[in-house]
Write a structure and sequence with these properties.
Oligomer: single chain
Distance between the termini: 47 Å
Order of helices and strands: HHHHHEHEEHEHEEHEEHHEHEHHH
Shape: flat
Largest sheet: 6 strands, mixed
Mean pLDDT: 83
Strand order of the largest sheet: 3-2-1-4-5-6
Length: about 475
C-alpha cells in the first residue's frame, strides 16, 4: 500500500475525531447552561474535557483505530464502533460508579447527550472523511506502477492491486520474458528489454519486480536502468525456493521491498523537513539578508558591470529544471552555464572570491527554499549540462534527484565541494548524496548546517 495515503488518511481521521468530541462537549454544555462561552471560565469542566480526550486516546489505541488498513472499509467500521463502545463504557464506569457525580458537576443528562451527539457526528463524519480522502486525497497520492515477472506472486499481486485504488497504485501491466507465465494476456505489455522504454513513455513511478532471484542479471540491469530514469524499484520476496505447495499461498499482504531506504518518502518526514525549511529560510532572510543585501548589492555594482543576481537553470527534484539564484561572483561571461569555476579562475572578481569563500553568494537561494525549489540541506543542484554528462558516466547519478536539492549538503561538508576535475570526484559526491538520502534525519540536517557555518567562518580549501 502507498504509505503516504495511509498516513494522510489516519492523520485526517485523528484531527476530525478530536474536533467532533470537543464540539459535542461544547454544544451540550452550552445548551444546558444557556451560554456558548461559559465553559471557558469553568475550570472543573475543562478538567473533565481533558479527561474525556485522554480516554478517547486510550480507547482508540487499545483497538488500534488509527493503525489499520484504510483499504478495508468493513474492518475500519468495526474498529470505529468498537472504540466508541469501549470509550463510552470507560467514561460511564468512571463517572457513574467510581466517583460521585457531584464531584465533577457532570449529570447523567450531560453524559448521555454529549456521548450520543459524539457518536452521531463520529459515524457521519467518518463516512465523509473516507469519501473525501478517497476521491480528493487518494488521486494525488496514486503511483503509476508496473510489475516485472508473471509468476504466481506477480499475478496475485497484480490481480489484487489492479482494481483496488485504495492500495495506492495504478497498475499499468506486466512484463516478462516468458509471456506464457502471464495468465491474463490483456495485462501483458512485453519483455523485460522493452520495459524501460514503456516506463519513460508512460512516466511510471515504480517498478515492482517479482522475478525469481535466479534471474539476477535481469534484475541488476533493471535496477541500473531504474536509477538512470529516476524510477523507484522494489523487489517482491522470492518464494521459488519454497519446497511445499504454493497453491494455497497468498501474496497479497506481502510487502515489496525497496532497494534503498528513503526516510523522506514518508510524508510526515517530508512535512517536518519542509516546515523547518520555511522557518529557517524566513529567519535568515529577515535577520541576515535584510541588512546584508544592500551592502552586497552596492559592492557588486561598484566592482563590475552587470546584474547583482546570477540566475542559472539547474536540475531539481525529479530532474525538473528550476532557476537557482546566487549573488553574482564573476564577471559576465558566455561560459557560465557550461564551465565550472576553477582555482584562480580569472572570471571571479575580488568580491566574488570573498563571497564564494564564505558561501555568502548562496544566500539568495533561501528564496528558492521558500518557493519550494530547494531545501536548506540536500544534494547541490548541478548545471543541466553536467547532469546530462555525468548521468551517462555514473550509474547512480540520477538517484540524487529523488529529493530536493539543497543550499548545502553532506557531500559539501565532507570534502566534495566545488570543482570536479575527474569522474572519481563526482562519484564521491554522488555516493555522499545517496548516503544522505538513505540516512536522512532532522539531527543530520542540523549537523550539516553547523558544519557549513563552521567551514564558512574558518574557511574551506575547496571554496573558490
Amino acid at each position: 500500500m502507498n504509505n503516504n495515503y495511509k498516513i494522510i488518511h489516519n492523520v485526517l481521521n485523528i484531527i476530525v475525531d478530536y474536533f467532533l468530541l470537543n464540539l459535542a462537549l461544547i454544544i451540550v454544555y452550552s445548551q444546558m447552561y444557556h451560554s456558548p462561552f461559559q465553559w471557558l471560565g469553568d475550570k472543573t469542566y475543562l478538567h473533565v474535557v481533558v479527561m474525556f480526550n485522554l480516554l478517547w486516546l486510550l480507547a482508540a489505541n487499545i483497538l488500534r483505530l488509527y493503525n489499520g488498513d484504510v483499504a478495508d472499509d468493513a474492518r475500519a467500521s468495526k474498529k470505529l464502533i468498537g472504540a466508541y463502545t469501549l470509550y463510552v463504557g470507560i467514561i460511564s464506569y468512571i463517572i457513574l460508579f467510581l466517583n460521585p457525580i457531584e464531584t465533577h458537576l457532570i449529570t447523567r443528562e450531560f453524559l448521555f447527550d454529549s456521548m450520543t451527539l459524539f457518536g452521531v457526528l463520529l459515524g457521519f463524519c467518518h463516512i465523509l472523511v473516507r469519501s473525501a480522502s478517497r476521491y480528493l486525497v487518494l488521486p494525488h497520492t496514486l503511483k503509476k506502477a508496473i510489475i516485472v515477472g508473471g509468476g504466481k506472486a506477480g499475478m496475485q499481486l497484480y490481480n489484487h492491486y489492479k482494481n483496488n485504488l485504495n492500495r495506492g497504485y495504478v497498475l499499468l501491466g506486466m512484463f516478462d520474458d516468458e509471456p506464457s507465465r502471464v495468465q491474463n494476456s490483456d495485462s501483458y505489455l512485453g519483455t523485460t528489454s522493452a520495459c524501460m522504454d514503456y516506463v519513460r513513455q508512460n512516466k511510471v513511478d515504480e517498478i515492482i519486480c517479482a522475478l525469481p532471484y535466479t534471474e539476477h542479471d535481469t534484475i541488476e540491469r533493471l535496477i541500473k536502468d531504474s536509477d538512470r530514469n529516476l524510477v523507484r524499484f522494489k523487489l517482491l520476496p522470492d518464494y521459488s525456493f519454497y519446497q511445499g505447495s504454493l497453491h494455497n499461498q497468498s501474496f497479497v499482504n506481502v510487502q515489496a521491498v525497496p532497494i534503498r531506504v528513503e526516510p523522506l518518502e514518508d510524508v510526515v518526514n517530508r512535512f517536518a523537513k519542509r516546515l523547518f525549511d520555511i522557518v529557517f529560510a524566513s529567519l535568515v532572510i529577515v535577520f541576515i539578508l535584510s541588512w546584508l543585501f544592500p551592502i552586497i548589492y552596492f559592492l557588486i555594482k561598484m566592482e563590475s558591470p552587470g546584474p547583482v543576481f546570477f540566475v542559472q537553470t539547474r536540475s531539481g527534484l525529479n530532474n525538473v529544471p528550476f532557476n537557482c539564484y546566487k549573488f553574482r561572483s564573476m564577471r559576465v561571461n558566455k561560459d557560465s552555464d557550461t564551465v565550472q569555476a576553477t582555482k584562480g579562475d580569472s572570471r571571479i572578481t575580488r568580491l566574488g572570491a570573498f563571497l564564494r569563500k564564505t558561501s555568502l553568494d548562496e544566500l539568495p537561494q533561501f528564496f528558492n527554499v521558500l518557493l519550494g525549489n530547494m531545501s536548506v540541506v540536500g544534494p547541490r543542484p548541478h548545471m543541466l549540462s553536467h547532469t546530462e554528462q555525468y548521468s551517462q558516466l555514473i550509474d547512480q547519478f540520477m538517484v540524487r534527484h529523488f529529493i530536493k536539492p539543497g543550499i548545502t549538503g553532506w557531500a559539501q561538508v565532507t570534502g566534495f565541494r566545488g570543482e570536479t576535475k575527474v569522474v572519481e570526484e563526482m562519484l564521491g559526491r554522488v555516493e555522499a548524496d545517496v548516503w544522505y538520502m538513505e540516512n536522512w534525519s532532522f539531527a543530520l540536517d542540523l549537523k550539516i548546517i553547523f558544519m557549513t557555518v563552521f567551514k564558512s567562518v574558518y574557511g574551506d580549501a575547496k571554496a573558490y
